[in-house]
Amino acid sequence: MLSHLRLDSFTLILIATVGLASFLPASGDFGRYFHHFSDFAIALLFFLHGARLSREAVFAGATHWRLHLLVLACTFVMFPILGVAIQAFAPTWLLPEPLAVGVLYLACLPSTVQSSIAFTSMAGGNVPAAICSASASNLIGVFLTPLLVALLMKVQGSGGMSLDSVKAIMLQLLVPFVTGHLLRPWIGGWVAGHKQLVGLVDRGSILSVVYIAFSEAVVNGLWQKMPLDGLAGMIVIACVLLVVVLVLTTLFSRWLGFNKADEIAIVFCGSKKSLASGVPIANVLFPAAQVGMIVLPIMLFHQIQLMACSALARHYAQRREAAEAGPSPQS
């Protein structure tokens, strides 16, 4: 039992990264430079994936409509139902009203892009399908999230996809992936022969995303704005919500007959919520005085999902490595 509870080295490094961001957050010029470095790491990750994946694998991922529908259903149907249930049944001493609104808003957000794909890759899942599902969820969510918020909260306002958002996704994700894929005939063999490099970029990109995301949360007053009782309640609720979602996405993928690689993509794409999309949309939908408390649940949930999913990705990877190694010879 203790061996299952023991943290692996990457999880310990991740915890240390969160601690570093709490005490030495990236801010000012260093924060901007590190943000650029994180963007470069993500772009490099997508470039390497594009060079590694065959044309058949990319096409299969793009046309895997059953998987994409399930991810969208988990993100924009299952999550809002759970959010409404939490708001209705959680006692006010555990979840004060402003944070309850924030939890419901969290449930309406789209999935993340970078971390969903990075975790899917680390776990050995269907990366092309994850790229398509996570990107589609993020793009659709910018339109669908304000509609869900209006329906569930009756909030006045509207959100939209800015050209800058489209450009950022294209330049950081799609362009490097397509470039790497076009160069696959020349560099594909080298990339395939250096799997450790891709793994290093996977883990490095996750650590950079965690550090810059948590740094921004700390700089924006995460620990000052969150009362201790509200923080404790949100930690409990966020953990329970994440566990329920991870269990349901796993069960749904198995009940519907998806293979293990597809299951991994569904679990990681269908269980996340995007802080990057959540903050700007909240600035449009809610009064400025309320935005701080409303985005606190997504700020906290974002950090918890990164840490929990990194451990889950390592678990999937270890099981895959054990299966590939086969049974140990009997002496």
UniProtKB/TrEMBL annotation:
Q: Name one Pfam family in it.
A: SBF_like
Domain of life of the source: Bacteria
Q: Which InterPro entries match?
A: Na+/solute_symporter_sf (IPR038770), Put_Na-Bile_cotransptr (IPR016833)
Q: Which UniProt keywords apply?
A: Membrane, Transmembrane, Transmembrane helix
Segments spanning the bilayer are 7-24, 30-48, 69-90, 127-153, 165-184, 204-223, 230-252, 281-301
Gene Ontology CC: plasma membrane
Q: What is this protein called?
A: Transmembrane protein
Organism of this sequence = Magnetospirillum fulvum MGU-K5
